[in-house]
């Protein structure tokens, strides 16, 4: 299988042929423009002396030999990520380091109001969004700017880019990577992020691909649970709403399965039940799950209620199915009345009527704190992807 090299580069620098870089003797870390050796598959290998991203079992692991001059390093070694495509690619060790860097980014963001970070100065991020977005696009752009980088953006690429003229995603990616150092892609087709990653020679982050996955949302969701509850092992999680079409709940199920003694309750209308592939994956990982039609009963048992909206845009012409599902499960004062005092309510947003506004004032309503955590997680990912730890 051919080897392709993806090179970190600064946008204001020329693009020399990728050649191995020497280590910085003072730190033992690769310099800012370190070469990442990868194969044409979305899951990028990490040298054996670094924490490994674990690809899905349906894809082969890419083995890369560690430099001969390096001995195994602890978790504090510079973590290099490849493309961020799906939640399954992360293991607990990598998650821990991402979360540690996210905590550091909280301090960086607070300090940036008086002194702008220069960590990503000279780097350009392209946000290529074929579907509408508020939080994901703006938090990525804010993350890049908080770290001193710059942004190239298109908000509605499906309508206002050359895609409207019939240009393929692959050709768009080949063009955009010539202008930027990293691409954040949201697309309406499941699997589009994998195609982009296989095409690009710079890092690609999946910001949501149709009903497929949304891995950075899952990262911020798990980070939020850790920050709110104080632990991840032993969590009881209620996933509520549109579970068939919700890429956020799919990614969260994959990621929370990395932890021990997890139980997941699925609460949804019949027309949008969680799909069998997620149930089978959870079973294979030893995660207990249960389907229920009683939201109050589930809420009384859970540490986290993760509510989602019924996504009208995923129903196509089957408006009758949408109307049958909408409004069936609502988080309101009744749910708060049975929810444990330590528990939290989360939502990936935007919401419609599935959480009543009178819930917002309850300290257990964590969804706006959850959205803010997206900034820290995306700052951490951009830093790790472009310059390392």
Provide an overview of this structure:
- The protein has 389 residues and is α/β, with parallel strands linked by helices.
- It has two domains: 223 residues, Aspartate/ornithine carbamoyltransferase (Rossmann fold); 158 residues, Rossmann fold.
- 32% of the residues lie in helices and 14% in strands.
- The strands form three sheets. Strands 9-8-7-10-11 form a five-stranded parallel β-sheet, sandwiched between helices. A four-stranded parallel β-sheet has the order 4-3-5-6, with helices on both faces.
- It is globular, with a radius of gyration of 21 Å.
Q: What's this model, at a glance?
A:
The protein is an alpha/beta fold. The protein has helices spanning 92-111, 135-146, 157-160, 169-176, 192-199, 215-229, 247-256, 276-284, 295-301, 319-325, 333-338, 367-386, and strands at residues 4-7, 35-38, 124-129, 150-154, 182-187, 204-209, 236-240, 263-267, 288-292, 304-307, 344-346.
Question: Which tags fit this structure?
Answer:
single chain, 389 residues, alpha/beta, Rossmann fold, 2 domains, five-stranded parallel beta sheet, four-stranded parallel beta sheet, 12 helices, globular, disordered N terminus
């Amino acid at each position: 299988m051919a080897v392709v090299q993806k090179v970190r580069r600064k946008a204001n620098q020329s693009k020399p042929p990728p050649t191995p870089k020497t280590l910085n003797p003072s730190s033992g870390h690769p310099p800012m423009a370190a070469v990442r050796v990868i194969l044409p598959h979305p899951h990028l290998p990490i040298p054996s002396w670094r924490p490994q991203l674990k690809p899905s079992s349906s894809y082969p692991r890419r083995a890369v030999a560690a430099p001969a001059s390096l001995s195994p390093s602890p978790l504090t070694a510079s973590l290099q990520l490849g493309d961020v495509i799906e939640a399954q690619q992360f293991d607990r060790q990598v998650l821990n380091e991402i979360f540690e860097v996210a905590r550091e980014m909280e301090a960086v963001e607070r300090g940036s109001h008086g002194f702008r970070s220069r960590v990503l100065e000279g780097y350009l991020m392209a946000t290529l969004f074929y579907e509408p977005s508020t939080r994901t696009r703006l938090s990525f752009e804010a993350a890049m700017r908080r770290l001193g980088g710059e942004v190239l953006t298109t908000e509605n690429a499906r309508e206002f880019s050359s895609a409207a003229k019939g240009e393929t995603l692959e050709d768009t990616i080949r063009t955009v990577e010539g202008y930027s150092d990293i691409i954040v892609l949201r697309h309406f087709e499941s699997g589009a992020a994998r195609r982009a990653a296989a095409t690009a020679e710079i890092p690609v982050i999946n910001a949501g691909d149709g009903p497929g996955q949304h891995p950075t949302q899952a990262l911020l969701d798990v980070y939020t649970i850790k920050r709110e509850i104080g632990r991840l092992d032993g969590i009881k999680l209620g996933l509520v709403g549109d579970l068939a079409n919700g890429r956020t709940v799919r990614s969260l199920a994959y990621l929370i399965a990395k932890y021990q003694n997890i139980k997941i309750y699925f609460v949804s209308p019949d027309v949008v039940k969680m799909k069998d592939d997620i149930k089978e994956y959870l079973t294979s990982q030893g995660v207990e799950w249960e389907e229920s039609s009683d939201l109050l009963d589930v809420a009384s048992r859970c540490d986290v209620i993760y509510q989602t909206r019924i996504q009208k845009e995923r129903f196509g012409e089957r408006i009758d199915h949408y109307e049958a599902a909408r409004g069936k499960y609502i988080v309101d004062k009744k749910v708060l009345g049975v929810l444990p005092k330590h528990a939290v309510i989360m939502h990936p947003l935007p919401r419609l009527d599935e959480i009543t506004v009178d819930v917002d004032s309850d300290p257990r309503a964590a969804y706006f704190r959850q959205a803010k955590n997206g900034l820290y997680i995306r700052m951490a990912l951009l830093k790790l992807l472009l310059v390392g730890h």
